[in-house]
Amino acid sequence: MKKYPRGLVSFLIATSLILTIPSCSSKKSGKEESNAASQSGSVNEDTAQNESSSDNMMSTNMTSSENSAPSQESLPAGTEEIEATFLGVSHWGEPETKKENADSFTYRFDVEGREKTYFIDNTKKDSSGTPLYPIQNMLKEGYRYKILVKDNTIVGVEEFKSESTQPFQPVVSGTPGKRTVLNFIQTALMPVGTTLYVFGGGWDWQDTGSSIQSRTIGVSDDWVKFFSEQDVNYTFRDKDDDPEKRDPKTSYYPFGGFNEYYYAGLDCSGFVGWTLYNTMNTESGKEGYVVSSTKMAKKLSETYGYGDYSGTLGDQDPDRYRLRPGDVVSLKGHVWISLGTCDDGSVVIVHSTNGYKSKAGQPGGGVAIGAIGYTKDCQAYQLASRYMTEYYPEWCSRYDLTLSDPDHYLKIEGDTAGRFTWNTSSSEGLSDPDGVQNMKPDQVLKICFGE
Q1: 285 by DSSP, 3-state: which?
Q2: pTM for the complete prediction?
Q3: Rounded Cα distance, 66 and 272, in Å
Q4: Alpha-carbon distance 428 to 451, whole Å?
Q5: Do residue 148 and residue 208 come from a single domain?
Q6: pLDDT of residue 287 exceeding 80
Q7: H helix intervals, 281-351
Q8: How many independent structural domains does the chain possess?
Q9: DSSP type of residue 414
Q10: Percentage above 70 pLDDT, the chain
């Protein structure tokens, strides 16, 4: 059986959602991100699920115009308000449970100790007639809701708040909306060590744009709670990384083309999108930044005008690629943030990766400080190992730091992959009053961790 995350976020009501589709890019095209990455081999992180989404449709912005459910007296005729715990979509993992069949899905709830199933109203659509799935984008397994039901169909939901949740305090904190390179890096470090890799994490349920969590200021309580409920046996897809043991019915992986566990963690593009959102904004619910990992670096330059894009890193000669702190690098199937190049040419990075194996041998990982180099003697590995071990002991009790191979992590393939560097003289992107772009990784890390 799956472990269902239990927790909460702020109240939202589906019937009062305001929905818009900003003009930005959609998710991963083709099978660009297909298998679990081995840090010493392939860097494929996130399998494509929706090849048909347009590049001009990225984030579905969902905000609530009210913060409380309608009273019993104001309920529409024939509508019943029920308190229930969400248990998941019926027939999860079955061959017929595919996104294209979403209108026929039923959803399981615990109502006063008895399991009941309901349909969901999918009539809300964008201007092109594409369903927006606002209710699915608020449902999280194991969480308790007030649901509004009419004719056995859910037409609205409201999440109950927990009475015991304590605010999460990250080791390193960024400042929302502070547009500097240093703050971008500090923000990227906030989910480190407490957010697991979930394929589709940070994407919306329908897999076309940003989730509510990746457009929310601060580290999501959902990520922290899911991490706390898992252990060394967590696997993002197949037990023991063995396709022969694949069981879609018990996996967190979205085999059906929709992100049932969009809220539980972050994949690589979800992580970078969340970091960008929290750096560029001071409030939740605006347009998101989550796009295809392979396209992200180019879009930051060409769509947003934040800086310079290059389709090559030169070659493996560090004097030519010399990645700066804050650079965003898109590979074929992965995206990561540079913390700078060491004197020996190795690179310190922060990313969300499924390229780890837990101490129980299970494939997974999440948001972590990593290293690109040829041997564990390289300076980047020593720095990453030191900071992860010292500041994130719970993470390190589950995972050993792995070393990313430069022949893969510095290899640019395709016409959209490449390197993005912030233009700090432009008013559109980030400034660099701290001179971070000219620092070495050890200097950046000392500042971020207050050493």
Answers
A1: coil
A2: 0.86
A3: 30
A4: 31
A5: no
A6: yes
A7: 296-302, 318-321
A8: 2
A9: S
A10: 81
